[in-house]
Write a structure and sequence with these properties.
Oligomer: single chain
Distance between the termini: 46 Å
Strand order of the largest sheet: 1-3-2
Strand content: under 5%
Structural class: mainly alpha
Length: 491
């Protein structure tokens, strides 16, 4: 592998960031124009500027990256990912792109937690909770089942962890598209609309917990027993105990931290120290979750956001500040890195593509029938039950985050192979296209109330649980809106 420029310093990495930010912005705007989530545009940008197409298939790439399991050779303009001038790779995950991506995924999950309203979740009651539970259980079961005949491509009973990871990927829900359609139709504030939004949030909470349990057990199976505390964590029963201990400790500390942030908000309202302390809490929770308790780091960041969301004023102020940096730089880098580092067409074969399409179908069916059946049990009519199922079937960035976690090299032989990232990309693409079409068809006999349309303006971010296009819908607007208020803020 040859590169014109070898990225071995901060200034060189700044050029890489410039290319990624320009590419993701242009592709994101293009995808938004054609009615698709910007997150897909970000991934496509990563595929275009990375080695997946032009490098591995054509021999030339804008950005080059060394993959230990790839025999691809090509020439590139910028050679990065811990590669020196002799083409030798450093330890994977220590390069600048991987570090920025890690910060991006933690901030995404932290922001998702900040936007979780526990009081609203309580109001929706049993219906939203059971819809969410079914929306996790049915797609996950179908995902595992569809893996059983595909043992030849690294799934099936011989690779049960990988099969379970596929099921976990299918559980994630993104309600941003559903929210925008329901707003347009004037149905967002109805009982059904509120139930769908709440169920999607609960769905993600359950999905993240399930992912933490599976990754924890998978890591215990991949680790060699060393004795002492690490050896204890490497056992299955030790893993389960540590997962339970993490949630107990994190929630117990959360009560005190919530009171602390409420006091800070009263004592120092709208000062920069609040988001700074919040970010510190996010990163400490993520580190402790992964390194001490063996739980996925994204779970720690997500839980930190939920805890801080109980301090309403502080969480709203923090979310405004965090999302500017997140959606301006770190999140685009994370999603572009999926296309740059995790998508390869060389290892793709017909069976992988066939499985990807079957998994997408199972993922859509699982949400529609699973969530719809529970809605029908709560005496919604057939049309409303179908709306509940369709409203829960859209996927977004949480599915990508779960996929990236399942492909973590720390899982060893239990990690999901990179070629299965195409499954998640297809799932997001298909669900993003079909969800608004089906919702509008189901509502076609009903006219929206006068003055009830809520079509979002171009610079107005959609408030939803996990759609990058929602919060990234031009982070410039919230940034400019808050600048005057910051003139007196302390640092």
């Amino acid at each position: 592998m040859e590169g014109v420029f070898y990225i071995d310093n901060g200034l060189g990495f700044a050029v890489i960031l410039a290319i990624i930010l320009l590419g993701t912005k242009l592709c994101g705007l293009l995808f938004r124009k054609i009615g698709l989530p910007q997150v897909l545009g970000y991934i496509i940008a990563g595929i275009i500027i990375g080695p997946a197409i032009f490098g591995e298939l054509c021999g030339y790439s804008l950005i080059g990256i060394t993959k230990p399991d790839s025999d691809a050779t090509y020439k590139c303009l910028f050679l990065l990912s811990g590669v020196d001038k002799e083409g030798e790779a450093f330890l994977l995950g220590t390069d600048g792109l991987a570090i920025f991506s890690k910060i991006g995924v933690l901030l995404l999950m932290f922001s998702t937690g900040l936007e979780t309203n526990l009081k609203e979740l309580k109001k929706t009651g049993l219906a939203a909770t059971l819809i969410a539970c079914t929306g996790v259980a049915v797609p996950m079961a179908l995902g595992v089942l569809i893996c059983l005949p595909f043992g030849d491509i690294g799934l099936g009973t011989k690779h049960i962890y990988q099969s379970i990871f596929v099921g976990a990927i299918l559980t994630a829900t993104s309600v941003a598209i559903t929210v925008s359609v329901l707003k347009e139709l004037g149905k967002i504030s109805t009982k059904l609309g509120t139930t769908i939004v709440s169920a999607a949030i609960i769905d993600d909470v359950i999905g993240i917990v399930v992912l933490s349990i599976v990754t924890g057990i998978a890591k215990s199976g991949a680790s060699e027993a060393t004795g002492g505390f690490e050896g204890f964590k490497a056992t299955i029963y030790g893993t389960i105990i540590m997962i339970i201990a993490f949630f107990i400790v994190a929630i117990a500390l959360g009560f005190g931290l919530s009171k602390l942030f409420r006091w800070l908000e009263k004592k120092f309202p709208h000062t920069r120290r609040i988001p700074v302390f919040s970010l510190a809490m996010c990163f400490i929770y993520a580190w402790a979750a992964e390194e001490i308790f063996g739980v996925a780091d994204i779970t720690g960041a997500f839980l930190a956001g939920i805890i801080l969301s109980t301090a309403h004023n502080a969480s709203e102020y923090t979310d405004k500040k965090v999302e500017v940096n997140t959606y301006t730089m770190f999140a685009p880098v994370f999603f572009a890195n999926i296309g740059i580092s995790n998508i390869s067409f060389l290892g793709m074969n017909g069976m992988v593509v066939l499985f990807a399409f079957l998994a997408v179908i199972m993922g859509l069916i699982g949400k529609i029938f699973g969530c719809g059946a529970v809605a029908k049990a709560f005496k919604y009519n057939w049309r409303e039950s179908a709306i509940a199922g369709v409203g829960m079937m859209a996927r977004g960035e949480v599915a990508l985050i779960v996929t990236a976690t399942a492909m973590d090299s720390a899982l060893g032989d239990h990690a999901l192979p990179p070629e299965f990232m195409i499954m998640t990309v297809l799932l997001i693409l298909v669900s993003s296209i079909l969800t608004p079409i089906f919702l509008k068809l189901l509502y076609k006999d009903k006219k929206p109330p006068q003055g009830g349309e809520a079509v979002l303006s171009e610079g107005e971010p959609v408030q939803a649980d996990d759609e990058i296009g929602a919060n990234a819908a031009e982070a410039e607007t919230p940034a400019s809106a808050t600048l005057p208020a910051e003139s007196h803020a302390e640092n």
